[in-house]
């Protein structure tokens, strides 16, 4: 599964080619976020054979075109407790030309059904459990602190042109807060004892809950900044991941900037950040420097974050510019 | 709106007759639970002209037949913050022959859209706000303490034969707990100051949240016992309700037995009751005696509760028999 993260855009294109050749009438995705996201893309382009790959990719990297046609049924069975991809209309991949992840975000590609069986998470190593749990944590806090839906800049009258990420709202808040409470109670337990079925079950549900929340409200800067962190990885080898190449696992790349990000966004809605702050102290372990980044990398990291409008525009403190992003990355070099 | 509560079954039949005559292609319900529930029934029977009224009414009072045909679109605009009817497939009415409320419960009759505008709740008197808020409180606690979905007796393989109320489950829990938290924070404020838009808005949302929770999980004994309490009303006149007949408002009839009920159900799942208990202390004010019931009424109250299987079977302490119900009503005579 993690092998897919290497050059995901190529896997995407292979999967799309394979789907078009097979003309399948349904899709079954069993795996982590990369697997489910690949199936979403294969499904989308199978049903839109006349479109170029970049047509549906998020602007400004792609054209962000609306999807007007129904896709085939996709059933997703997640085997990690992090991504929430089984609940969302988001599909993320490495875009090699920019050395950053980007994606497709459209409610049309959301799976028809997710089968969430906690026995599928017992295989996860402590490190994989932690990293995917960090993703859940950030999904929950970012969606809970994302700018409110009524404050967003772009609210097109045509609903088909509205972004999948619409900002925090009274429905997403329910899911995000509930997920956060479960993370606080069960994340540590789920890491410490891989046979703790209660903890693993709850974290699996938390990934679903947070998925429904952020799939609707969106995430913001931790995710936006994580894409170049993952894309620009140098020699860092993820512990306990069975891959032959350098890799910063998604959850780790997301959680790394979270203290800096939430210090930046907190003044915009202090109440919501205060609720989240108690939980955050529980899970932070290191900094970007420990992942092999140096100060000289910051300009490239900033450059990789700037086009992530889909998420950066949801930051409650305003869409940060180059200087602010550079400062956030600098502050994330050593977290503690 | 409250006038409808007098002899609701006749209003139901009038509305059904009117709908059949008009052959409408859609429905718009603006009001409290009675209004929305009436529109649901009119819609259902308009689309099933060959069926008798009792065909779809809950067993054992009616036949509880499955609904196999689509109904017309119904848009619901709630003007109270209690019922949650805009979110559910439940329609409740007074069934005169039994002097008890009963209803139709089928996901087919759920409104297509609810428009939840808190400005519609500013007209509510403090008493109406309290009573409808009690309903939200009990929706939240009852659905959170309802027996878990996997413990229910009847789990027919044919999904069309499964009850609308399926027992507490990981999705309903999210909504019920969230609603409970809002009730704890805003119910008192919403009663004390009718111009407190923040409190009224939050209680309006809480009624929606609790509605999604209980519409899915179900309610149990407080609701099951409330139906004969309302049906057997003698001379009690509800304060601040503009009606010319005796009436125990729904929320009041529900909350009145809640201490006795939750003492009865607590040993079955103490953790969930302990969470709810802190909130319950906030809102109880009196007992059944103050509403005009005496000990001699208990047999009739019990008799009116016994056929409410749809909800009583979800009680986590087991479906109580005559003696247990009598004791619960006795304990509810004087709450404090």
Short description:
In chain A, 46% of the residues lie in helices and 7% in strands. Chain A is built from 12 helices and 5 strands.
Outline the structure in words:
Chain A has 336 residues and is mainly α. Chain A is built from twelve helices and five strands. In chain A, strands 1-2-5 form a three-stranded parallel sheet, with helices on one face. A two-stranded antiparallel ribbon of chain A has the order 3-4. In chain A, α2 (33-46) links the parallel β1 (27-31) and β2 (74-78). In chain A, α8 (258-265) crosses α12 (322-333) and α10 (298-305) packs across α12. Chain A is globular, with a radius of gyration of 18 Å. The relative contact order of chain A is 0.14. Residues 1-6 of chain A have low confidence and may be disordered. The interface between A and B is small, with 7 and 7 residues.
Topology of this protein?
The structure is a homodimer of 336-residue chains.
Chain A: H1 8-22, E1 27-31, H2 33-46, E2 74-78, E3 90-95, E4 100-105, E5 113-114, H3 126-145, H4 170-192, H5 197-217, H6 221-231, H7 250-255, H8 258-265, H9 270-280, H10 298-305, H11 309-312, H12 322-333
> How widely separated are the two ends of chain A?
32 Å
| Chains forming the largest contact | A-B, 7 and 7 residues
Widest β-sheet, arrangement of strands of chain A: 1-2-5
Number of helices of chain A: 12
Task: Write down the Rg of chain A.
Answer: 18 Å
Overall shape of chain A = globular
Number of strands of chain A: 5
Quaternary organisation of the protein chains: homodimer
**Strand count, sense and closure of the main sheet of chain A?**
3 strands, parallel
Helix content class of chain A: 40-55%
Organism (chains A, B): Acropora cervicornis (Staghorn coral)
Catalytic activity (chains A, B): 4-hydroxybutanoate + 2-oxoglutarate = (R)-2-hydroxyglutarate + succinate semialdehyde; (S)-3-hydroxybutanoate + 2-oxoglutarate = (R)-2-hydroxyglutarate + acetoacetate
Subcellular location (chains A, B): Mitochondrion
Family (chains A, B): Belongs to the iron-containing alcohol dehydrogenase family. Hydroxyacid-oxoacid transhydrogenase subfamily.
